[in-house]
Design a protein that fits this description.
Length: 268
Amino acid sequence: MKNYYLGTLALFAISCQETAKVEVVVEEGPTVVIHEEQLAEEPTEPEATEFYDVKVPVVGPATSDKLPSDAIVLFGGENLDSWLSAVDSTAAKWHVNEDGSMTVNDKTGDIQTKQNFGDIQLHIEWRSPAEVQGSNQSRANSGVFLQGLYEVQVLDNNDNPTYTNGQVASVYKQHVPLAKASVASGEWNAYDIIYHAPEFNEEGGKIKSATLTVLHNGVLVQDHVEIKGSTEYIGWPNNNAHGKAPLVLQDHGDNSRVSYRNIWVREL
Ligand code: MG
């Protein structure tokens, strides 16, 4: 639902000598869109371009021991209650570990959130095993699939060359990361992701691409990149229309042994 407010800035009227209404559209949540009429003349007073009508939601900040106050915890270390098997929608079969992490259970399939999401801020931490096995795409390969379709690659790339557009923190086969910011194998990485979902018209045509921004251990690695469609292993991206959809974590099926912890989202 949208709430509509009409705010009148008297000083606009003074400076423009006409009624200058500013329509403020407040979407649910923190997104705020402001539509301003074209002003006949540039304002000459500072107050003419200042407004008080929009109230910004107050969100408790993330600190070293606290999540943002409106965060939805998807994995807090105790269980997989927020997840399902992406194969058959039964209980997720990955391993929950005593240290508050979970680990891919090889060949049991991807897991997906029970909840569907659109635009989100996502925090997720992952670790590849200290004892390395395999090479190229078969060394600790997993992935974070936004809306189940668009993969941010998780891979142990340390001394492990692979194709550049499939390396760690790539948008798989679509966007090379701006940097490789991995910690040593066996240590915890963090991804902080800002994702905006694609939009489709009633006929199913894409009218706006999804976008992704990714910080890998605090380093900007994807800068508001445009998603071309599903991140395919073989072939071109697909752009089938969809609405809100689950977050998916990948079981690459080759004993990746990747672990995850501290997964939370904020809906945008
Ligand atoms: Mg992967």
